[in-house]
Amino acid sequence: MNITLEPPSESALRTLAERSGVTIERYAAEALAAHVKAYDRWFVQSVEKGLKDVAEGRVLSSDDSIIRDQARRARLKN
Fold it and tell me: What average pLDDT does the chain have?
């Protein structure tokens, strides 16, 4: 896989890799793997929390959800 980074990001990544004593490719691969693992852990925890909320009756109807969303958007505009 090849990726293209904006120059500031590539420079920052290169600096971090040099400080760590590894190649930029290895540093990038390790950083991406850590991010994917953390995201996966967060996603699974979020789904489990949602399922627990449903099982315990902490849910909103779609109408209530729409009303809350509209109120939130209105607050953000002000």
Answer: 95
Instruction: Give the CA distances from residue 77 to residues 4, 60, 63, 66, 67, in Å, rounded to whole numbers and listed in that order.
Output: 36, 24, 21, 17, 16
CA angle 25, 28, 32 (to 5 degrees): 140
User: Sign of dihedral through CA atoms 10, 11, 12, 18?
Assistant: positive
Residue 61 burial (C-beta neighbours within 10 Å; 0-12, 13-18, 19+): exposed
- Write the DSSP symbol of residue 61: -
pLDDT, tens digit, 9 for 90 and up, residues 51-62: 999 999 999 999
Tokens of 57: 């009756």
The pLDDT value recorded for residue 1 is: 86
